[in-house]
Prior knowledge:
Blueprint: H1 3-20, H2 27-42, H3 47-56, H4 59-66, H5 80-88, H6 93-98, H7 102-116, H8 122-129, H9 134-139
Helix pairs in contact: 1-2, 1-7, 2-5, 3-8
Amino acid sequence: MNFDKHCQEGNEFLHKLSAELQNEGDTDHAYRIVRSVFHTVRDIITRNESAHLVAQLPFVLKALYVEGWNFQSKSRVKTLEDFLLCLKSKDNEPAVRDFDIDEIAKELVKSVFKVLHDYVSTGEIVHVMDQLPKELAELCNPLTISK
């Protein structure tokens, strides 16, 4: 196993995301954002759909996705507002600040899905979006987000 290659892929993702967030080079911020988004998404979508998503992620992002996962926990998220509340609860104080303003939080989530589209097929992202609140799915639709 080539751990250096896997770390490089994870760092590449974080660098792309930090650039997309217009905060180039701040991979700590990018990490907090993607971690919170992943942990919120996995608590909403089915385990089967999570498995399909994880299968396409680079190795380090797979680990990030499943970190601390409680398979029994399912969030009852029906609206974009519910999603944003769940997102704010996923990490400590810095993440709460990251997602404090709803309009900024929406753009952060959209940025994660935009970069994720470089690693995951459009079809898989569409399947994930089918299980998320409609407003969020429309915001992060890979067919409307340019690569």
